Amino acid sequence: MRKVYLVSGGVTKFAKANPEKDFRLMVKEAYDQAISDVPKLNHAMIDGSVVSYFSDHFTRQLMAGAMVNDFLGLCPKPSKRVEGGGATGGLCIQSAYEDIASGRMNVVVAAGFETMSQVNTWKGNEFIALASDTNFDYPVGGFYTGYYAMMVVRHMHEFGTTPEQMACVSIKNHKNAIYNPFAQHPAELTIEDVRKSDMVSWPLTRLDCCTMSDGAAVCILADEDTAFKVCDNPILIKGLGTGTDSMRMADRPHGDVILLPNENKDDYKGLKYPGVHSCRAGRMAAKMAYEDAGIINPIEELDFIELHDAFTSSEIQTYEDLGLCKYGEGGSFVEKGYPFMENIDYGIKLPGKTKIAVNPSGGLLASGHPIGATGIMQAVFSIWQLQGNIKEQFGNDTLQIKDAKRGLIHSHAGTGTYVAVTILEKV
Length: 427
Description:
The chain is an alpha/beta fold. The protein is 36% helix and 17% strand. Helix 1 crosses helix 3 (64-71).
């Protein structure tokens, strides 16, 4: 297969609502930003597009992807839609990669969006809940806040994880977002602020949960020859992994832990896996991506991670699924300060030293979560990190990770039904 590179990206500011902009205009704004950063790449060089959005319900428009392709002036070139729940954006990047790696195309636009403000919050939660089993889970009140509350209660029971440790995730991500002008919810918080905010589904409070958003993001991918002709510092897509699991957690069989390169079987004697405390699809996606990229110890070989933190609890689960720590250690991992930025004062005592920056952008919790755009937003911010362009794009360099060479993006759908992991590398 051919090597594939990310040459540029663009993103709109994520917001609760953008009533003056429909989905096509938001994507066009992100696309214009992406293509303006590579002036040697002209519109005619683009061979096709992949468009990602989660739900036809929010736009009340079937074939919205075709309308985006038209609005970008890419007709009659090929285009297709990708949809995979919360992992939609991450799967879009991987689909665009496959078009180029196969030799079918040389330059592909990966574009994602969501316009979730078109409906009330309760109706939006209902639409999102349609990504669960509508024959079993959904009819008995299965909203995702309830699913994730159940998952973290089990995590707390199995491993001793606490709501205060979850609050540390919220503090970190909201504080990081203060320095990200594209973020929806920048804030300086305390553990008390998080725990005293409105209870959504115990133990998840409002500040433990991401919010619905309007927004769009675009990445431009290219083959090796084109990438180095049009861009001085293209970013190599070094490794890909995707995992799946049954829709209903009750259907998931217990078995051996999927081991990552830095683990062995003795690490997990007696652990009931995956249970409802962990995501087997996340493990599979990580294993495939690490093997593809030749990574043995992720916490030493990665400089940052942008992961799918729809809830503070899911960030803690994902530390473990990605092998940043052992299963059961995710709560103490964040409490000790290991995934924080080393140059930011978060207003809480962190007994350990930073090991790896997780969600320097603010993640979904603070940047926002317009579902089809989210995984692509992670890629855009990762391109800027690896190109050393955070100051240029954000207007400050607080979130710039010094000498960053390799990053990971992680997209997660349902209760771990689809997970996509992609590793990016500076060359």
